[in-house]
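Next comes a concrete protein, fold included:
___
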Amino acid sequence: MSDIIQLLPDHVANQIAAGEVVQRPASVVKELIENAIDAGATSIKLLIKDAGKSLIQVIDNGKGMSNTDARLSFERHATSKIKDAQDLFNLSTKGFRGEALASIAAIAHVELKTKQEDDELGTQIKIEGSKISSQEVISTSKGTSIAVKNLFFNIPARRNFLKSDTIETRHIIDEFQRVALSHPSIAFLLHHNGNEVYHLKESNLRKRIVSVFGAKMNEKLVPINETTDLIAINGFIAKPEFSKKKRGEQFFFVNDRFIKSSYLNHAVVSAFEGLLENGYHPSYFLYLTVPPSSIDINIHPTKTEIKFDNEKAIYAILRATVKHSLGQYNVAPLLDFNRDSNLDTPYQYSDKKTTSVPKITVDPNFNPFKTEQGNYQPKSTSFQKETSNWEALYTSTDTIEASNQEELFYQEQETETGKTFQIQKKYLLSSIKSGMVLIHQSLAHQRVLYEEFLESITVHEAMSQQLLFPVHISFSKTDTEMIQSMKADLENTGFLFESITEEAIVVKGIPTSITESQISLILEQLLDDMKLEVPETSFSHFDVMAKSFAKSLAIKTGTVLNSKEQETLVNDLFSCKEPSVSPFGKATFKTLTIKEIDAIFNSH
């Protein structure tokens, strides 16, 4: 039998490696910008076209590469960051993977220009699918420029899996923001299709956060600063009143590297205990500095998850630090009460040396329960009238139990006649001929609203109600751009905009089905949903809008519904085209037949 195991050619191995390294255009952006930072750049430009599918170019003023290094940088396992395995546990750089450039070059057309400061001329290398097409000496400025064109040109299946330009651009901006926030001392520029998206000058941390998320962010920030032997923590948290329904602006950086950590997030949230409304999340920008040897950043391919040696201690320090800052800046209540002027000594008594102790006389023979009739009779007639119904406060447990049984009997009677009743403020139970049906009230309402909104948007002309006073809502620059791109679609739903600027929108009209207080919630939900993995179709915007509106406006678990509201919801649900599932694919109801119910009680 012949041998079947063989070594893969380098270009195939590189394409396989690229599957891990390059998941989408944003992955390329992250690798290239991190390399520029490691090269000591003080200014980094990012140019993208067609959400990075046609072009991703990073230009830096770092130290550049020699002719030999430029050629070696595209070889697999080539890196300047580590020399042996031990270096993996004491890293101070970012792009140390050693496969990034080789992987990128395997699935794109790459053009590299680079020059070191002391060299008169630089190097230009062009690569197409791992094959070097040219290498020559050129005149170029100090630093490195690397352009990645036609991403996934030789893997069309991967290219087809990319999402819409809106979604891919959002991922690129996310990566850009993370790097820009972790390096405020570096100037960053981002252009998309020739339009300037960000122009961030060298600044301090607070100014960098404000320049990324808008001027309104400045008033929200509360500084954090704590240094211990184990960890140094600094950055900012947002005041509780600026918390959001979604976890948008939550950033952890460890040694200037963005990470995700549900464990550390829990520490921050617990510090806000008692300050946030139910379902709301705090915003924060927290920078943790620890010895490189105390963390492992190789537990995840994207290196956004790390492992701490002393995670329990770090949790405790982080929680205490956030709690202290909330108190220090009068955001949280402190055990430090203001003096009440009503408790001050009156002026006319301030000069008295001594005070007399009032005498208290007690009748030791007084018994309030002892009367001629053996029962206490109040002396005051008016008081007696007020307390004539006191016996109602001392109803026996038998009476209460009987009342509960009567209520239960009433519910059973309703069920038998085909009506509904509510369970735990979450489910509706209704009898049917074959048994009974259990309905999830929130998911059912989502389905009803979804179909109503979809019909309103696509079939009928949406009705709009004019606001008495226009509503101003602050958003980040990228969010307002997304709203601008959806403006026509939003107007089809009934929204009317007075203006849309870089950091705010002004709404002057809303759909008749929503209230003024719901505007911000609906638009934030819509933005979050648009950032998710939604395929690019002519129908997608309308569909996402209908889903977002339904999710935002549907009755929530914990809402009490009266009999009429319950019946209306049930009737509306079963009038839908797809009553069995919510807009997000979850079951809205479950039917139990008489046989299934009997089986529950006959199972033993």
Notes: The chain is about 35% helix and 20% strand. Residues 8 and 14 are 10 Å apart (CA to CA). Residues 410-604 form a domain with the formyl-coa transferase, domain 3 fold (CATH 3.30.1540.20).
